Fold this sequence. Notes:
The protein has helices at about 5-15, 20-30, 35-50, 85-100, 125-140, 145-155, 180-200, 220-230, 240-260, 270-285; strands at about 170-175, 175. Helix 6 (about 145-155) crosses helix 7. The model is unreliable at about 165-175 (pLDDT under 50). By secondary structure, the chain is an all-alpha fold. Strands 1-2 form a two-stranded antiparallel ribbon. It has a domain at about 125-285.
Amino acid sequence: MRLSPVLWFARETGATPRDKGIARVAELSGDLRQKDFAKWWRQTGKVIFAETIEPPIVSLLGVDVDIRSPISTTETLYLEVPLSISKESILQQVREILRINHAGRALDLMDKSTAKFPLHTHRFRLNRIEISFWVLLYRLLYRQTFDWQIGDRLQIAPHLKVREGIQVDQRRFHDYTDRSFLGAITGRHLYKARYTVLHAERGEFPNLEEIKLSERYQPFGLRLQTEFREATESRNGELSAWNEWLHKEFAVDLMNKVIESNRFDSSEFRASRPTKRLKEFVDGTSDLLF
């Protein structure tokens, strides 16, 4: 949500997005200016993502309980389990009954959610979402870099050696050079990250599915469209207010991420010259550090 120019513009100007879903997210997402995720989570995140009603649990009714009349108002399956047979036999029979009567993986748990912002799915890989976040942030901060440079600096595929000055075999993968292959991997993370942001603006997370916006999409309407574009689009080498905010908030974090990903010794970059080289390495103007 912090990487959304729409939510940024809404909080900076007080303008209300025309899309009711986005307006709701802007209202409920709290103070997105603060960098401390843990603090934001305590104040806002756990409130909007939490279930307002505890999910039902499997419970013991007791022995010799009369269940001729319904006991629970939830969707419930009542079983009579004889305790005079082996546990293995019981479990085998219960599994078979559930196979017939339970929707299994087709059950949409999110359809039962009572949270203000229900998770779109429980089936996601956090590390992939994290990679996509860093890839998108990199692209937003350094638009002049190539996709393969972003993938290299973040070490998305460490086995691919693509920097100038590094002696490697001229291997190919399905007729792609290592550089092209790494660019393709990074590009996939990039478009998935953009879809994730667009869905997050609308209160759906994590959702990596494609979402298409009209070329005439105006999140704040025609009256504010020019102001919105001027505030969020960099032109002629000058950073927009949105991009200036991004650099202020995230540039140091990204540089530290690059240092961590490449296992550099951060003490090596405290002198002015190495720091200059590191900046050139991060912004893609140089592939060499030493």
